[in-house]
Every structure is written in structure tokens, then in C-alpha cells.
Task: structure prediction
Amino acid sequence: MRVFCERLKTGLWFAPAAALVLVVFIYPVFRTLALSFTHLNLETGFQIQFAGIENFNRLLSDSRFFNSLRVTALFTAASVALEFAIGLLAALALDAIQKGNKTARTILLIPWTLPTAIIAVLWMWIFNDQYGFINAALARLGIIDSPIAWLGRPNTALLSITMADVWKAFPFVFIVLLAGLQSIPRDMYEALEVDGGNAWHKFRYITLPHLLPFIFLALIFRIVQAFAVFDLVYVLTGGGPGGATETVSVYGYYTFMRYLDFGYGAALVVSIVVILALVAWILYSMLLRKYEMAR
Result:
């Protein structure tokens, strides 16, 4: 009886948290999954009917979906690669600085603390073709003769959004990798110096193997966030011009809110979750293999 009371007491302590997880996470997941096998019949008064795998078959022939998937993949690959490169360089530089690193760390973290919608409005002014900073700077340097509509051209709109996202998100990669660098024992570098190791040897045999778990954490977070980008694209371009910047999140939003096609929108979301899970598994396998080889 005493054991039962202790278990009941423990269960009551965890009950609020379990209820919150159930309402916020578990129910929406199963609700979306169930909704993906239905469609809304507008002719019968918004009646939900079972559709089987019809919505998923429709995805296979949806050129707009594949275009949004291609745009999202390009955006994710470019932004995450640049964020990782800049974040790693900034972390290595700041780790080597003894004075003023706290101030520099605080300054570098400012973009990450700002809301994405505010960042989007800021970069909308920077990319403005009439009075934006970039056009003014390029004109003063003599690089361009006439203003460029950065957000109005298909070949520059995605590049502009990528630049804004890199500026916003690279501090996250930087702070994660900096934490990894500061956890490496300094005597390992000293021992390698005694053996005649140079800067490249330190990075190859000490820094990189110890950073692999932190790299995995930063890349997984950023890939998922970049793949699910919505507010930055929606505020800057709304998916235009001509679908050149329409990501899967924006397409899903239009499917739900503009076209009221809830079943197809749910199928789109489920497909993206499956793709992200597959990407995460591949990345985890690659990093785990390198980590085991480095040990």
C-alpha cells in the first residue's frame, strides 16, 4: 500500500506536465495525421470525408509542391552551410581572444535575440530598391548604375532571403560551437605542441573530434528551423515573385488558410516531417561514423 501511495504521489506530480504534452504535442500530431487521410467536401456543407491515400498521391503530381520543396532545399542548404562556416570561424576566433570576448559574444548574439518578423522588416528596408542601404552602397562604389529590385527578381529574391536568415541565425551556431571549444581540455593542445603538431593538426585531431557532437546539435536544429522557415519569407516576399521563394511552409499556409484544403495541407505537413526525419537520420549516421573513426 505504501509503494502504491508513493507511485500515485509521483504520478500526480507528473500529471500536469503529461497533460500539457498531450494537449500541445501528442493530440495535434495524431490530429494532423488523421486529417491527412480526409478531404473537405464543400458541396455537402463542409463535411469531412475519408480519402485514403488520395492526398499523398496528389502530392506526387503537384508541380507547385515540388517547386516549393526545391526552393526550401536550396534555401536550407545555402543558409545552413553559410551559418556553419561563419559560426565556426567566429567561435574559433573568439575562443583564441583572451580580452573582450564577453563583449564580442554579447554583440554577436544580438541578431539571434530579435524576433524574426522584426528582422524581416529590417531587411525589407535594407533591400528596398529605391532607398535601401545595399543599393545606395553599391551605387556609391560604382558597382551598379541603376537600383536593383532585390526582392522583386526571381534570381535575387532567394539570395536576399538567405542573407537575412544567415545574419539572423549564425549566432546560434556560433554559441553552440563556442561552448564545445571551451569544453576541450587545454593540456591536449599543449601535448600535441610538444609532439610537433601545428595549428592544422590541433584542429584535425583535437578540435574537430571533440566538436562533432556540438556540430550535430547545431546542424540538426538549424536544418529543421531553416526547412520550416515561414515568417521571414512571408514578410519579405510572400513566396514571390512567381513562386521563386515559396517554401513548403508558405505553400502549406496558403493551402490551409487561403484554399481551405485541410486534408491536403495535412498530407503536405506529414510528408515534410518524414523528409526531415530521414535527413536527420542520415546526418546522424554520417556524424556518428566520423565520430567513431576519430576516436
Remarks:
- The two ends are 50 Å apart (CA to CA).
- The chain has a mean pLDDT of 84.
- The longest strand covers residues 38-41.
- Strands lie at 38-41, 47-50.
